[in-house]
């Protein structure tokens, strides 16, 4: 049985929405058509992936397993298409993802001296997509900030760097040389608390149950705008804070918080010589953050 990837994509959208009407709207198809496609997928698999009753649409055990496995499969299919199209262009190409604040110039220089025939493209990533761009083929290798979901990836540590807290100018702690996490217990963190577990463990807004809903923040610039306006604080790697220097936001060292770890990552199943060569160049040149 050959699995139809189109049906699988339809399934993922329904699984995310748990509502056939909303899923059909997202997919821009009629709901009866979507229902037939899901029934056809169930027939192909020989199992039911959804339970449908008056309470709504729920995933079965088979459906939960299929959803877990579908994401990497669909991402791999996207990566296959992207790499095939890139190969057809004739010029060898390597796309490198990188997180804000990380300087790739030394690694690029070494790699280019080894492989002058290769065109290198750079892709800036974020906390939300630094792994996804590797899985779906938008990037061949990435310089990532840990922690990440390492399933299916080869990860090679590069360096560690301190993290700092970003405060608005004029903040009550702004004249301090450094601060502890406990000094920030009464502040509102603009990030997911799990990203800063040291703060999470002492945060008053979590203890009192009064933490406001976290806005969706995709870029460092957005975080710093909110910090400058007094909406809250954020914790950043030192190199990122240094890169985004501005007068209305102050970075302060944190005394009792773990460092940020930077690493190389690529899809473990890939055996590309270009990925290997860039990894070696990066390991030789990016062993220490630029800000240290």
Task: From the structure above, extract its key features.
single chain, 292 residues, alpha+beta, 5-stranded mixed beta sheet, 3-stranded antiparallel beta sheet, 11 helices, 20% strand
Into which percent range does the helicity of residues fall? Answer: 25-40%
Q: How many DSSP E strands?
A: 10
Number of distinct helices: 11
Biggest sheet, spatial arrangement of strands: 4-3-5-10-6
N-to-C series of helices and strands? HHHEEHEHEHEEEHHHEHEEH
Instruction: Tell me the overall shape.
Output: flat
In terms of per-residue confidence, which ranges show pLDDT below 50 for 5 or more consecutive residues? none
Please, what is the average pLDDT?
90
Main sheet attributes: strand count, strand direction, barrel closure: 5 strands, mixed
* DSSP strand content: 15-25%
> Which structural class do you get from the secondary structure elements?
alpha+beta
Rg (CA only): 23 Å
- What is the straight-line distance between the termini? 55 Å
Q: What topology does this entry show?
A:
Blueprint: H1 5-17, H2 20-27, H3 31-45, E1 50-53, E2 56-59, H4 61-88, E3 93-98, H5 105-114, E4 119-124, H6 132-135, E5 141-145, E6 153-161, E7 163-168, H7 197-200, H8 204-207, H9 220-228, E8 234-237, H10 238-243, E9 249-253, E10 260-267, H11 273-285
Parallel strand pairs: 3-4, 3-5
Antiparallel strand pairs: 1-2, 5-10, 6-10, 7-8, 7-9
Helix pairs in contact: 1-2, 1-3, 1-4, 5-11
């Amino acid at each position: 049985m050959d699995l139809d990837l189109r049906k699988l994509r339809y399934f993922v959208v329904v699984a995310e929405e748990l509502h056939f009407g909303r899923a059909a709207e997202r997919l821009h198809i009629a709901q009866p058509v979507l229902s037939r496609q899901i029934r056809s997928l169930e027939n192909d698999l020989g199992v039911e992936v959804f339970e449908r009753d008056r309470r709504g649409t729920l995933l079965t055990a088979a459906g939960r397993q299929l959803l877990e496995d579908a994401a990497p499969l669909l991402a791999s299919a996207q990566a296959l298409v992207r790499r095939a199209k890139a190969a057809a262009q004739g010029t060898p190409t390597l796309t490198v993802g990188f997180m804000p604040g990380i300087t790739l110039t030394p690694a690029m220089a070494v790699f280019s001296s080894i492989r002058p025939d290769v065109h290198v493209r750079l892709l800036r990533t974020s906390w939300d997509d630094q792994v996804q761009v590797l899985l779906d083929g938008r990037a061949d290798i990435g310089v990532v900030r840990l922690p990440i979901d390492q399933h299916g990836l080869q990860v090679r540590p590069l360096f560690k760097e301190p993290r700092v807290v970003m405060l608005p100018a004029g903040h009550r702690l702004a004249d301090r040389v450094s601060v502890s996490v406990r000094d920030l217990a009464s502040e509102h963190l603009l990030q997911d608390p799990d990203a800063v577990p040291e703060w999470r463990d002492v945060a008053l807004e979590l203890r009192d149950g009064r933490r406001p809903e976290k806005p969706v923040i995709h870029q460092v610039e957005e975080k710093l705008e909110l910090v400058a306006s007094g909406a809250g604080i954020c914790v950043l790697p030192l190199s990122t804070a240094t890169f985004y220097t501005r007068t209305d936001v102050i970075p302060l060292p944190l005394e009792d918080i773990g460092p940020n770890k930077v690493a190389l990552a690529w899809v473990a199943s890939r055996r590309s010589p270009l990925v290997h060569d860039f990894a070696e160049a990066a390991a030789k040149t990016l062993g220490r953050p630029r800000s240290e």
